[in-house]
Amino acid sequence: MVAVPSGRVILSDRRTQSSWPVEVAPFRMSAFPVTQSWYAQVTGQRPSGAQGDRLPVEGVSWWDAVRFCNALSRREGLTPAYRLLSDAEAPEWDTSADGYRLPTEAEWEHACRADTTGPRYGPLDEVAWYQGNSGGRIRPVGGKQPNAWGLYDMLGNVWDWCWDVYDAEVYGTYRVLRGGGWADEHWSCRASVRRRSHPTFRIDDVGFRITRSAPLPRP
Fold this sequence. Notes:
The chain is α+β, with helices and mostly antiparallel strands. It has helices at residues 36-43, 62-75, 105-113, 124-127, 168-171; strands at 2-4, 7-13, 18-24, 27-29, 82-83, 92-93, 159-165, 175-178, 194-197, 206-207, 211-213. The strands form four sheets. It has a four-stranded mixed β-sheet, covered by helices on one side. A three-stranded antiparallel β-sheet has the order 1-4-11, with no helix packed on it. Strands 2-3 form a two-stranded antiparallel sheet. This is Formylglycine-generating enzyme family protein. Residues 17-211 form the Sulfatase-modifying factor enzyme-like domain.
């Protein structure tokens, strides 16, 4: 897990033509997307189409990602971040829990940018697998350069599920996806690009990475 410092990020919404600042507290994020071997160790399942231990797990829904976070937390003796009710109801997030969770959209963008201000944290072909260089297939994690904070594959390879609802007024329970994937054109692999999907949706270019809240300082 990589320590991500606190900061501030500006989020925007194309439909409402609005933008707003979000203060991000320090947290920790997995250096890579969750791999197929890691997912299998925790869940006993290998849902991905293209098989390979070092490939990002894909074909996983938002619900699958949430359940993985809770399962990994229990495995490591941590307090699960989510109280799961049913697939028809959104889980409750215990913000005081020390277990694993999905990043918020603001956390994801802040971590991706790593104190940069452009559309990407480096030249696209050097940092991301996308339509122009992936050869039409998913690639092992860590094959491109990381950003300044040591996070790999923040752009390209697989989209990352985030915790947030995309736009409840229009899309209901659809959740945010960030980062772009191996089959996407260059314009999708930018720090600010947002995509959305139903939390039960599974496809071969969507995976996830995990975070943990930084512990509160002792009094």
